[in-house]
Design a protein that fits this description.
The structure is a homodimer.
Chain A: H1 3-10, H2 13-24, E1 27-28, H3 29-36, H4 40-52, E2 56-60, E3 66-70, E4 74-81, E5 84-91, H5 101-108, H6 111-160, H7 164-175, H8 180-187, H9 191-203, E6 207-212, E7 215-220
Antiparallel strand pairs in A: 1-3, 2-3, 4-5, 6-7
Helix pairs in contact in A: 6-7
Keywords (chains A, B): Coiled coil, DNA-binding, Stress response, Transcription, Transcription regulation
Protein name (chains A, B): Archaeal heat shock regulator, ArsR family
GO molecular function, one term (chains A, B): DNA-binding transcription factor activity
Chain lengths: ~230, ~230
Amino acid sequence: MDPAKLLDILGNENRRRIIQLLASRPCYVSEISGRLGVGPKAIISHLDLLEQAGIIECSVDEQRRKYFNIANNMRLEVLLSPYTYTVTLHDIHFNREKGGETPSKKETLDREESSTLLLKLSSRLRELKKRQEELTQMQQQLQAEYTEIMDQCLDSIEKVATNPIECELLFELLRNETTLASLCYNLRLHPSVINASLTALEKRGFIEYSIKNNQYYWKIRETGAENE
Amino acid sequence: MDPAKLLDILGNENRRRIIQLLASRPCYVSEISGRLGVGPKAIISHLDLLEQAGIIECSVDEQRRKYFNIANNMRLEVLLSPYTYTVTLHDIHFNREKGGETPSKKETLDREESSTLLLKLSSRLRELKKRQEELTQMQQQLQAEYTEIMDQCLDSIEKVATNPIECELLFELLRNETTLASLCYNLRLHPSVINASLTALEKRGFIEYSIKNNQYYWKIRETGAENE
């Protein structure tokens, strides 16, 4: 799914409430409507939209009533800082439909074995939650350091650049290695102007290029220190 | 900031485009309007909203023109799976205004030293990006495993529960330790019904409680295996 599409979907409070409800249990339309205090007509139109986007799916129970559940497993991440805005959406695959081993094993488990297994699995879930919190911590530290270093870089760039265009170029290249064409587009400057500055910066040892897919990609020169 | 508020803000495409532009460089209203092909009136109303939310801030340049930049450093994460919907927003603090050491050190750096520093910082940025990718990988694996284990748990629960209410209770407790009141609210069942089932499940060794802030919190019994 396009991350922008997901942001559009999550931009509506009632859709968020529907998703939250379905993540706690599969529900019928009447249940959702009653629980959220929103008319069934509006609920159905949200459900249609969520279903089309592949976020939910519907099934039919023994009494031929339709119920809905979350179909997807995904992680959306938005990083926002003075130097970054990135939106990433990961579809996470899991072995739900796999079957194979598990069902046959399942048949042979009696109630006692199932009990032990349940306690074991529950303890594994707790571990995973703890690990999740650790990863979140690490990610925050990383983002904080990134922003601090970018601040320091801006100070250095002001010192080493001989004109505003060099400033802009170094700043762009610091964030990503990039092509002449992208630089022209982002900075709205003529290729000849940018090329002259790139050449000057390369001569002074600040930047270098590599060729990928028949294109020149410019980046800040690697000093070799980062190659572990 | 309330994560719901941020989702409301990001639910609009033009606001996302403004944020993206400002994360690449501070801009004037006229620049934003020209770049995005959206009238200045609409841009200004989006900017007002973004400023009120604390996402952007404005400054005035030497020619007394207002320009806008990203004021915040934050990470929004949405996890969505058949068993989870969590939205977390982390405000990430960084030492931007700190000053102290850095400025005095900055004064003493000449152009040559600044050049070396810039290359060093750039190489650190590259490391951070690599690390970021690794963390993202880990987080995805974690989420996949979580969903798989929840699937297995559901199988076990079906085996060990003697009635649908026990099923529901075990499922709720698997996701979070929780109070009687929350269970009543989530399952829409009378306290006496839930209490009877909790007592039965406790007797059979599936669940246990702890007391926090004068409240009973029920959870799946810890077997001790998870305590490293």
